[in-house]
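Q: I'm writing a short explainer about Guanine permease for a general audience and would like to include a description of its predicted shape. Could you first generate the structure from this sequence?
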Amino acid sequence: MKEYFQFDKLGTSYRTEFTAGLTTFLAMAYILFVNPSVLSDAGMDQGAVFVATAVAAAVGTLLMGIIAKYPVVLAPGMGLNAFFAYTVVLGYGIPWETALSGVLASGLIFIVLTLTGLREIIINAIPHNLKMAVGAGIGLFIAFIGLTKSGIVVADEATFLAIGDITSPTVLLTIFGLVVSVILLTKGIRAGIFYGMIITAIVGMIFGLVPIPRGIGDIVGAVPSIAPTFGQAFTHFGDIFTIEMLVVILTFLFVDFFDTAGTLMAVATQAGLVKDNKLPRAGKALFADSTATVVGSVVGTSTTTSFVESTAGVGVGGRTGFTAVVAAGFFILALFFSPLLGIITTEVTAPALIIVGVMMANQLKQIEWDKFEIAVPAFFVVLMMPLTYSIATGIAVGFIFYPITMIVKGRAKEIHPIMYFLFVVFVLYFIFLS
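A: Of course. Here's the predicted structure. Afterward I'll give you a sentence or two in plain language.
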Protein backbone atom coordinates (compact mmCIF):
# COMPACT_ATOMS: atom_id res chain seq x y z
CA MET A 1 0.00 0.00 0.00
CA LYS A 2 2.77 2.42 0.93
CA GLU A 3 4.58 1.61 -2.28
CA TYR A 4 1.47 1.96 -4.45
CA PHE A 5 0.70 5.42 -3.08
CA GLN A 6 4.42 6.38 -2.95
CA PHE A 7 4.44 7.39 0.71
CA ASP A 8 8.23 7.60 0.93
CA LYS A 9 8.62 9.63 -2.26
CA LEU A 10 5.99 12.14 -1.18
CA GLY A 11 7.14 12.25 2.44
CA THR A 12 3.93 11.10 4.10
CA SER A 13 2.66 8.28 6.35
CA TYR A 14 -0.47 6.33 7.23
CA ARG A 15 -1.14 8.57 10.22
CA THR A 16 -0.78 11.75 8.20
CA GLU A 17 -2.95 10.46 5.37
CA PHE A 18 -5.64 9.24 7.78
CA THR A 19 -5.71 12.61 9.53
CA ALA A 20 -5.93 14.34 6.16
CA GLY A 21 -8.82 12.11 5.04
CA LEU A 22 -10.74 12.75 8.25
CA THR A 23 -10.10 16.49 8.04
CA THR A 24 -11.37 16.70 4.47
CA PHE A 25 -14.44 14.63 5.34
CA LEU A 26 -15.33 16.91 8.25
CA ALA A 27 -14.76 19.99 6.08
CA MET A 28 -17.37 18.80 3.58
CA ALA A 29 -19.66 16.58 5.66
CA TYR A 30 -22.26 19.33 5.47
CA ILE A 31 -23.11 18.17 1.94
CA LEU A 32 -24.67 14.99 3.39
CA PHE A 33 -27.44 17.14 4.88
CA VAL A 34 -27.52 20.18 2.60
CA ASN A 35 -27.88 18.17 -0.61
CA PRO A 36 -30.96 16.20 0.55
CA SER A 37 -32.44 19.47 1.83
CA VAL A 38 -31.99 21.15 -1.57
CA LEU A 39 -33.12 18.23 -3.73
CA SER A 40 -36.12 17.49 -1.53
CA ASP A 41 -37.44 20.90 -2.60
CA ALA A 42 -37.62 19.38 -6.09
CA GLY A 43 -39.87 16.60 -4.76
CA MET A 44 -37.22 13.93 -4.26
CA ASP A 45 -37.26 11.58 -1.28
CA GLN A 46 -34.88 13.02 1.32
CA GLY A 47 -33.75 9.69 2.75
CA ALA A 48 -33.01 8.27 -0.71
CA VAL A 49 -31.06 11.41 -1.67
CA PHE A 50 -29.05 11.12 1.56
CA VAL A 51 -28.01 7.61 0.60
CA ALA A 52 -27.33 8.64 -3.01
CA THR A 53 -25.17 11.52 -1.79
CA ALA A 54 -23.05 9.25 0.41
CA VAL A 55 -22.77 6.52 -2.24
CA ALA A 56 -21.83 8.94 -5.05
CA ALA A 57 -19.26 10.60 -2.80
CA ALA A 58 -17.78 7.28 -1.67
CA VAL A 59 -17.55 5.79 -5.18
CA GLY A 60 -16.18 8.95 -6.80
CA THR A 61 -13.67 9.53 -4.01
CA LEU A 62 -12.47 5.91 -4.10
CA LEU A 63 -11.92 6.15 -7.86
CA MET A 64 -10.04 9.42 -7.45
CA GLY A 65 -7.84 7.95 -4.74
CA ILE A 66 -7.11 4.55 -6.27
CA ILE A 67 -6.96 5.40 -9.99
CA ALA A 68 -5.75 9.01 -10.08
CA LYS A 69 -3.95 8.81 -6.70
CA TYR A 70 -4.94 12.35 -5.73
CA PRO A 71 -5.98 13.52 -2.23
CA VAL A 72 -9.19 14.90 -3.75
CA VAL A 73 -12.66 14.13 -2.41
CA LEU A 74 -15.82 14.20 -4.52
CA ALA A 75 -19.50 14.70 -3.70
CA PRO A 76 -22.64 16.17 -5.29
CA GLY A 77 -21.67 19.75 -6.01
CA MET A 78 -23.12 22.88 -4.49
CA GLY A 79 -24.58 25.11 -7.17
CA LEU A 80 -25.34 22.25 -9.48
CA ASN A 81 -27.79 20.82 -6.94
CA ALA A 82 -29.40 24.27 -6.69
CA PHE A 83 -29.59 24.52 -10.48
CA PHE A 84 -31.12 21.03 -10.58
CA ALA A 85 -33.80 21.79 -7.99
CA TYR A 86 -34.68 25.45 -8.38
CA THR A 87 -34.06 26.12 -12.08
CA VAL A 88 -34.62 22.84 -13.91
CA VAL A 89 -37.37 21.26 -11.79
CA LEU A 90 -39.14 24.17 -10.10
CA GLY A 91 -38.35 26.82 -12.73
CA TYR A 92 -38.77 24.92 -15.99
CA GLY A 93 -41.28 22.44 -14.64
CA ILE A 94 -39.17 19.48 -15.76
CA PRO A 95 -39.75 16.29 -13.71
CA TRP A 96 -36.84 15.47 -11.42
CA GLU A 97 -36.57 12.07 -13.08
CA THR A 98 -35.88 13.77 -16.43
CA ALA A 99 -33.43 16.11 -14.72
CA LEU A 100 -31.55 13.05 -13.45
CA SER A 101 -31.46 11.80 -17.04
CA GLY A 102 -29.82 15.11 -17.95
CA VAL A 103 -27.18 14.56 -15.27
CA LEU A 104 -26.57 11.06 -16.62
CA ALA A 105 -26.18 12.39 -20.16
CA SER A 106 -23.73 15.08 -19.03
CA GLY A 107 -21.67 12.45 -17.19
CA LEU A 108 -21.53 10.19 -20.24
CA ILE A 109 -20.48 13.12 -22.45
CA PHE A 110 -17.83 14.03 -19.86
CA ILE A 111 -16.44 10.48 -20.04
CA VAL A 112 -16.27 10.60 -23.85
CA LEU A 113 -14.53 13.99 -23.81
CA THR A 114 -12.04 12.66 -21.26
CA LEU A 115 -11.27 9.43 -23.12
CA THR A 116 -10.93 11.16 -26.50
CA GLY A 117 -8.79 14.01 -25.22
CA LEU A 118 -11.32 16.64 -26.36
CA ARG A 119 -11.44 18.01 -22.82
CA GLU A 120 -8.44 20.25 -23.51
CA ILE A 121 -10.17 21.79 -26.53
CA ILE A 122 -13.29 22.52 -24.50
CA ILE A 123 -11.37 23.98 -21.57
CA ASN A 124 -9.36 26.26 -23.87
CA ALA A 125 -12.45 27.33 -25.83
CA ILE A 126 -14.16 29.02 -22.89
CA PRO A 127 -12.40 32.27 -21.89
CA HIS A 128 -10.86 32.30 -18.43
CA ASN A 129 -12.83 35.40 -17.48
CA LEU A 130 -16.15 33.71 -18.22
CA LYS A 131 -15.14 30.61 -16.27
CA MET A 132 -14.44 32.79 -13.25
CA ALA A 133 -17.70 34.67 -13.74
CA VAL A 134 -19.67 31.42 -13.82
CA GLY A 135 -18.09 30.28 -10.54
CA ALA A 136 -18.71 33.62 -8.83
CA GLY A 137 -22.26 33.84 -10.15
CA ILE A 138 -23.07 30.39 -8.81
CA GLY A 139 -21.70 31.54 -5.46
CA LEU A 140 -24.10 34.51 -5.36
CA PHE A 141 -26.95 32.25 -6.46
CA ILE A 142 -26.26 29.74 -3.68
CA ALA A 143 -26.00 32.49 -1.06
CA PHE A 144 -29.28 33.97 -2.29
CA ILE A 145 -30.98 30.60 -1.90
CA GLY A 146 -29.67 30.32 1.65
CA LEU A 147 -30.93 33.81 2.50
CA THR A 148 -34.40 33.16 1.08
CA LYS A 149 -34.83 29.63 2.44
CA SER A 150 -34.04 30.88 5.93
CA GLY A 151 -36.35 33.89 5.75
CA ILE A 152 -33.56 36.46 6.11
CA VAL A 153 -34.60 37.80 2.69
CA VAL A 154 -38.27 37.67 1.67
CA ALA A 155 -40.46 38.69 -1.27
CA ASP A 156 -41.93 42.19 -1.22
CA GLU A 157 -44.58 43.66 -3.54
CA ALA A 158 -43.09 47.15 -3.52
CA THR A 159 -39.37 46.38 -3.78
CA PHE A 160 -39.45 42.74 -4.98
CA LEU A 161 -37.12 41.77 -2.11
CA ALA A 162 -36.78 42.95 1.49
CA ILE A 163 -35.26 41.96 4.80
CA GLY A 164 -37.31 39.35 6.62
CA ASP A 165 -38.56 39.29 10.18
CA ILE A 166 -35.24 39.13 12.00
CA THR A 167 -37.08 38.83 15.32
CA SER A 168 -38.46 35.45 14.26
CA PRO A 169 -36.85 32.66 16.35
CA THR A 170 -36.05 30.54 13.28
CA VAL A 171 -34.46 33.48 11.45
CA LEU A 172 -32.45 34.33 14.56
CA LEU A 173 -31.24 30.73 14.71
CA THR A 174 -30.00 30.97 11.12
CA ILE A 175 -28.25 34.26 11.84
CA PHE A 176 -26.65 32.69 14.92
CA GLY A 177 -25.44 29.75 12.83
CA LEU A 178 -24.05 32.10 10.20
CA VAL A 179 -22.12 34.13 12.78
CA VAL A 180 -20.75 31.02 14.48
CA SER A 181 -19.63 29.47 11.17
CA VAL A 182 -18.00 32.74 10.08
CA ILE A 183 -16.10 32.97 13.36
CA LEU A 184 -14.88 29.36 13.12
CA LEU A 185 -13.71 29.75 9.52
CA THR A 186 -12.11 33.12 10.24
CA LYS A 187 -10.16 31.42 13.03
CA GLY A 188 -8.85 28.97 10.44
CA ILE A 189 -10.88 25.94 11.55
CA ARG A 190 -11.19 23.90 8.35
CA ALA A 191 -14.39 22.10 9.29
CA GLY A 192 -16.01 25.35 10.42
CA ILE A 193 -19.14 24.85 8.31
CA PHE A 194 -19.79 21.38 9.71
CA TYR A 195 -19.04 22.39 13.31
CA GLY A 196 -21.21 25.46 12.85
CA MET A 197 -24.13 23.23 11.84
CA ILE A 198 -23.64 21.06 14.92
CA ILE A 199 -23.52 24.06 17.27
CA THR A 200 -26.56 25.62 15.60
CA ALA A 201 -28.53 22.38 15.91
CA ILE A 202 -27.68 22.11 19.62
CA VAL A 203 -28.72 25.71 20.28
CA GLY A 204 -31.90 25.08 18.30
CA MET A 205 -32.66 22.11 20.56
CA ILE A 206 -32.13 24.21 23.68
CA PHE A 207 -34.68 26.77 22.50
CA GLY A 208 -37.13 24.21 21.14
CA LEU A 209 -36.59 25.09 17.47
CA VAL A 210 -34.97 21.80 16.49
CA PRO A 211 -36.25 18.32 17.45
CA ILE A 212 -34.33 16.75 20.34
CA PRO A 213 -33.12 13.16 19.79
CA ARG A 214 -35.08 10.85 22.08
CA GLY A 215 -32.56 8.05 21.85
CA ILE A 216 -29.74 6.52 19.87
CA GLY A 217 -32.28 5.63 17.17
CA ASP A 218 -32.65 9.32 16.34
CA ILE A 219 -28.93 9.53 15.62
CA VAL A 220 -27.90 6.17 14.19
CA GLY A 221 -30.21 3.87 12.27
CA ALA A 222 -30.76 1.62 9.29
CA VAL A 223 -29.76 2.86 5.86
CA PRO A 224 -32.84 4.39 4.14
CA SER A 225 -34.22 2.78 0.99
CA ILE A 226 -32.78 4.13 -2.22
CA ALA A 227 -35.66 2.70 -4.25
CA PRO A 228 -37.48 6.06 -4.75
CA THR A 229 -34.59 7.45 -6.82
CA PHE A 230 -32.54 4.47 -8.00
CA GLY A 231 -32.56 3.97 -11.77
CA GLN A 232 -34.98 6.84 -12.46
CA ALA A 233 -32.37 8.43 -14.73
CA PHE A 234 -32.93 5.58 -17.21
CA THR A 235 -36.71 5.68 -17.25
CA HIS A 236 -36.92 9.23 -18.62
CA PHE A 237 -33.79 9.27 -20.80
CA GLY A 238 -35.89 9.61 -23.94
CA ASP A 239 -37.24 12.96 -22.72
CA ILE A 240 -33.91 14.80 -22.84
CA PHE A 241 -33.87 15.47 -26.59
CA THR A 242 -35.19 19.04 -26.53
CA ILE A 243 -33.53 22.48 -26.83
CA GLU A 244 -34.41 23.18 -23.19
CA MET A 245 -32.79 19.96 -21.98
CA LEU A 246 -29.81 20.54 -24.27
CA VAL A 247 -29.10 23.79 -22.42
CA VAL A 248 -29.62 22.01 -19.09
CA ILE A 249 -27.17 19.25 -20.05
CA LEU A 250 -24.61 21.76 -21.33
CA THR A 251 -24.89 23.66 -18.06
CA PHE A 252 -24.38 20.50 -16.01
CA LEU A 253 -21.40 19.63 -18.21
CA PHE A 254 -19.74 23.05 -18.28
CA VAL A 255 -19.98 23.74 -14.58
CA ASP A 256 -18.77 20.26 -13.63
CA PHE A 257 -15.98 20.44 -16.20
CA PHE A 258 -14.60 23.80 -15.10
CA ASP A 259 -15.20 23.22 -11.41
CA THR A 260 -13.31 19.92 -11.55
CA ALA A 261 -10.41 21.30 -13.59
CA GLY A 262 -10.04 24.31 -11.30
CA THR A 263 -10.31 22.28 -8.11
CA LEU A 264 -7.81 19.66 -9.27
CA MET A 265 -5.26 22.35 -10.15
CA ALA A 266 -5.80 24.16 -6.85
CA VAL A 267 -5.44 21.04 -4.72
CA ALA A 268 -2.53 19.60 -6.72
CA THR A 269 -0.68 22.93 -6.62
CA GLN A 270 -1.07 23.20 -2.85
CA ALA A 271 0.16 19.62 -2.48
CA GLY A 272 3.16 20.28 -4.74
CA LEU A 273 2.05 17.70 -7.29
CA VAL A 274 1.96 19.98 -10.36
CA LYS A 275 4.92 19.53 -12.72
CA ASP A 276 5.82 22.11 -15.40
CA ASN A 277 2.40 23.72 -14.90
CA LYS A 278 0.78 20.44 -15.90
CA LEU A 279 -1.33 18.07 -13.88
CA PRO A 280 -0.01 14.49 -13.90
CA ARG A 281 -2.69 11.83 -14.43
CA ALA A 282 -5.21 14.55 -15.32
CA GLY A 283 -7.11 12.16 -17.59
CA LYS A 284 -7.54 9.61 -14.80
CA ALA A 285 -8.71 12.32 -12.39
CA LEU A 286 -11.31 13.63 -14.84
CA PHE A 287 -12.41 10.07 -15.59
CA ALA A 288 -13.00 9.47 -11.88
CA ASP A 289 -15.03 12.67 -11.66
CA SER A 290 -17.16 11.95 -14.73
CA THR A 291 -17.78 8.35 -13.66
CA ALA A 292 -18.90 9.59 -10.25
CA THR A 293 -21.47 11.81 -11.97
CA VAL A 294 -22.84 8.83 -13.88
CA VAL A 295 -23.01 6.72 -10.70
CA GLY A 296 -24.62 9.59 -8.79
CA SER A 297 -27.32 10.09 -11.43
CA VAL A 298 -28.17 6.38 -11.36
CA VAL A 299 -28.51 6.20 -7.57
CA GLY A 300 -30.37 9.50 -7.45
CA THR A 301 -28.46 12.75 -7.00
CA SER A 302 -27.34 15.76 -8.98
CA THR A 303 -23.88 16.15 -10.53
CA THR A 304 -20.95 14.82 -8.49
CA THR A 305 -17.78 16.89 -8.65
CA SER A 306 -14.43 17.52 -6.95
CA PHE A 307 -14.62 19.61 -3.77
CA VAL A 308 -12.22 22.45 -3.09
CA GLU A 309 -12.53 21.52 0.60
CA SER A 310 -9.97 18.84 -0.29
CA THR A 311 -7.39 21.55 0.38
CA ALA A 312 -8.24 21.12 4.07
CA GLY A 313 -6.73 17.63 4.03
CA VAL A 314 -3.75 18.78 1.99
CA GLY A 315 -3.24 21.52 4.55
CA VAL A 316 -2.60 18.93 7.27
CA GLY A 317 -0.24 16.88 5.13
CA GLY A 318 -2.33 14.76 2.76
CA ARG A 319 -0.40 14.04 -0.42
CA THR A 320 -1.64 10.75 -1.87
CA GLY A 321 -4.77 8.96 -2.96
CA PHE A 322 -4.87 7.22 0.41
CA THR A 323 -6.29 10.45 1.84
CA ALA A 324 -9.22 10.04 -0.55
CA VAL A 325 -9.62 6.36 0.34
CA VAL A 326 -9.93 7.29 4.03
CA ALA A 327 -12.50 10.00 3.29
CA ALA A 328 -14.49 7.53 1.17
CA GLY A 329 -14.60 5.18 4.15
CA PHE A 330 -16.16 7.91 6.30
CA PHE A 331 -18.82 8.55 3.65
CA ILE A 332 -19.73 4.85 3.76
CA LEU A 333 -19.89 5.01 7.56
CA ALA A 334 -22.11 8.10 7.30
CA LEU A 335 -24.83 5.99 5.64
CA PHE A 336 -25.96 4.90 9.10
CA PHE A 337 -26.52 8.47 10.36
CA SER A 338 -29.56 9.32 8.23
CA PRO A 339 -31.80 9.93 11.30
CA LEU A 340 -29.91 13.20 11.74
CA LEU A 341 -31.84 14.52 8.74
CA GLY A 342 -34.67 15.20 11.16
CA ILE A 343 -32.39 17.38 13.24
CA ILE A 344 -30.48 19.20 10.52
CA THR A 345 -33.32 21.55 9.53
CA THR A 346 -33.38 24.40 6.98
CA GLU A 347 -32.32 26.88 9.65
CA VAL A 348 -29.26 24.71 10.31
CA THR A 349 -28.25 24.21 6.67
CA ALA A 350 -28.93 27.75 5.36
CA PRO A 351 -25.69 29.21 6.82
CA ALA A 352 -23.72 26.58 4.89
CA LEU A 353 -25.28 27.76 1.62
CA ILE A 354 -24.44 31.38 2.37
CA ILE A 355 -20.84 30.68 3.34
CA VAL A 356 -20.17 28.44 0.34
CA GLY A 357 -21.43 31.35 -1.74
CA VAL A 358 -18.89 33.64 -0.10
CA MET A 359 -16.10 31.21 -0.86
CA MET A 360 -17.07 30.90 -4.52
CA ALA A 361 -17.37 34.66 -4.97
CA ASN A 362 -13.60 35.03 -4.54
CA GLN A 363 -13.29 34.23 -8.24
CA LEU A 364 -14.51 37.76 -9.01
CA LYS A 365 -10.97 39.04 -8.40
CA GLN A 366 -9.65 37.10 -11.40
CA ILE A 367 -11.93 38.85 -13.90
CA GLU A 368 -10.45 41.68 -16.01
CA TRP A 369 -12.98 44.33 -15.00
CA ASP A 370 -10.89 47.11 -16.52
CA LYS A 371 -11.63 45.77 -20.04
CA PHE A 372 -15.22 46.70 -20.94
CA GLU A 373 -15.58 44.00 -23.59
CA ILE A 374 -14.81 41.46 -20.86
CA ALA A 375 -16.62 43.18 -18.00
CA VAL A 376 -20.01 43.27 -19.78
CA PRO A 377 -20.48 39.51 -20.40
CA ALA A 378 -18.86 38.64 -17.06
CA PHE A 379 -21.15 41.07 -15.22
CA PHE A 380 -24.26 39.64 -16.86
CA VAL A 381 -23.22 36.09 -15.99
CA VAL A 382 -22.77 37.03 -12.34
CA LEU A 383 -25.82 39.29 -12.06
CA MET A 384 -28.41 37.26 -13.96
CA MET A 385 -27.93 34.01 -12.03
CA PRO A 386 -29.41 35.24 -8.74
CA LEU A 387 -31.84 37.73 -10.35
CA THR A 388 -33.40 35.12 -12.66
CA TYR A 389 -32.95 32.27 -10.17
CA SER A 390 -31.20 30.34 -12.94
CA ILE A 391 -27.58 29.40 -13.51
CA ALA A 392 -28.37 28.49 -17.13
CA THR A 393 -29.86 31.91 -17.86
CA GLY A 394 -26.83 33.67 -16.40
CA ILE A 395 -24.47 31.60 -18.53
CA ALA A 396 -26.64 32.10 -21.62
CA VAL A 397 -26.79 35.91 -21.34
CA GLY A 398 -23.06 36.23 -20.73
CA PHE A 399 -22.12 33.84 -23.52
CA ILE A 400 -24.36 35.76 -25.95
CA PHE A 401 -22.79 39.12 -25.10
CA TYR A 402 -19.20 37.85 -25.21
CA PRO A 403 -18.83 37.43 -29.01
CA ILE A 404 -20.73 40.70 -29.56
CA THR A 405 -18.42 42.83 -27.41
CA MET A 406 -15.27 41.06 -28.60
CA ILE A 407 -16.14 41.51 -32.30
CA VAL A 408 -16.96 45.20 -31.83
CA LYS A 409 -13.67 45.64 -29.97
CA GLY A 410 -11.78 44.10 -32.90
CA ARG A 411 -10.82 40.94 -31.02
CA ALA A 412 -12.82 38.48 -33.16
CA LYS A 413 -9.73 36.34 -33.81
CA GLU A 414 -9.59 35.53 -30.08
CA ILE A 415 -13.05 33.94 -30.13
CA HIS A 416 -13.00 30.16 -30.40
CA PRO A 417 -15.47 28.62 -32.92
CA ILE A 418 -17.11 26.75 -30.04
CA MET A 419 -18.15 30.10 -28.56
CA TYR A 420 -20.01 30.95 -31.78
CA PHE A 421 -21.77 27.60 -31.59
CA LEU A 422 -22.80 28.31 -28.00
CA PHE A 423 -23.97 31.78 -29.05
CA VAL A 424 -26.42 30.18 -31.49
CA VAL A 425 -27.52 27.53 -28.96
CA PHE A 426 -28.28 30.12 -26.28
CA VAL A 427 -30.10 32.43 -28.69
CA LEU A 428 -32.29 29.47 -29.68
CA TYR A 429 -32.72 28.74 -25.97
CA PHE A 430 -34.30 32.15 -25.35
CA ILE A 431 -36.42 31.90 -28.46
CA PHE A 432 -37.66 28.51 -27.30
CA LEU A 433 -38.42 29.78 -23.79
CA SER A 434 -40.42 32.70 -25.16
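A: For your explainer, you could say: Residues 106 and 253 are 5 Å apart (CA to CA).
Q: Perfect, that's easy to follow.
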